[in-house]
Design brief:
- The protein is about 25% helix and about 30% strand.
- By secondary structure, it is of the alpha/beta class.
- The strands form five sheets. Strands 2, 3, 4, 5, 6, 7 and 18 form a seven-stranded mixed β-sheet that branches. Strands 9-16-10-11-12 form a five-stranded parallel β-sheet, covered by helices on one side. Strands 13-14-15 form a three-stranded antiparallel β-sheet, with no helix packed on it.
- Helix 1 runs parallel beside helix 7 and helix 4 runs parallel beside helix 5.
- The longest helix is centred in the C-terminal third of the chain and has 22 residues.
- The protein is elongated.
Length: about 325
Amino acid sequence: MLKEVSKKAYDVVIIGGGVVGYSAAIYCGRLKLKTIVIEKEIGGNLAKIDDIENYPGFQKISGINLVNKIKNHAKNYEVEFYNGEVVKVSKTKNCISVKTKKNDYLAKTIIFCTGSKVRKLEIPGEKEFEGKGVHYCALCDGPLYKNKVLAVAGGGDSAAKEALLLSKYAKKIYMIARNKLKPNPINDERIKQNKKIQIIEDNQIQEIKGDKFVKEIVLKNKLNNSNTLNIDGIFVYIGHIPLSDLAVELGVKINKNKEIITDKESKTNIEGIYAAGDVSEGKFKQAITGVGEAVKAVYSAYEYITKKGINFRCTIEH
C-alpha cells in the first residue's frame, strides 16, 4: 500500500550549500516552496578564496563574506538548513528519497548544487605529505609559510590568485604550469609584476619528496641544470572534479568530465531533477553563472510542481 508522508516531505531539496545553493533557497522561499538545504560543508570552495573582484555589486569581497551575505539573505525566508552529508538518493513511487547519516527526507524535486572537489596531482609523495607540506587552500594554510619557499602547481586563474595570496607570506614562489600560464589578464599582469613569483612553464611536477615534511619536488624538465627544486611546501590548483555521483544514482546523465548535463533551464534528463553551479555542464565556472543557473533551476522546479497540481503528494510504499 501507499502511505502519504508529510513531516519530512519537501517541494524542493537542495543538495549543497555555497552561493549557488543559498541563491536557489532565496528563490524557493520567494515562491513559497517548502524547501530544505542540506549541506556537508558550509560555503563550499568559494569560502576558501581570499579576494573576489568579479561578483557584481562588490568591488572586492572575501569568499566567506559573500557566502554569508547570501545565506543570511536566504534565512529571511521560510527555508530550512541542515548541516550533514547526503549518503544516498533513490526514486520512490512519486518522489525522491534523500538519506543523510541521521535523517531521511522526501522531495518532489531536487536541485543538485554539490559543486566540485579539488583535482589532485596523483603523483608519488602527494598523499603521503598531504597536510605536511602539500595543500589545496592558500587562505587556509598560507599563513603557515611565512618567509618560506613554496611551489604552486597550476597555470589557470585560480592558481594565479592563490600564488598572489601566498606571496603575502612566502619569500619565494615557483609557479609551475604544465603548458602556458593562462590566468585572466589582470592577474597575469599582477603575477608578472610580483618579484617573489617565478613562472615555470611547459613543465610538470613528477614527485614530491621529504622526510617528516616536504623538502623538494622533482620536475619533468630540468631547471638550471637540475630536475629538483628545494621547497617548504606545495599548493595544488589544477582544476576540480564535479561531485555528481549522487545524481548518477538516480540515472541523471553526465558528460565525459562527470558534469551533469543540463539544458538552458537547468533541467536534467529526468523530470523533477535539476542542477546548477560547478557540478553542471558548462565551460564558464564562476559564482555569478552558478547563481543564474540556480535561479533557472528553481523556476523550472516551480513550474513542474505547479503543473502536477494540488494532488501532487510524496508517497512511500509499504
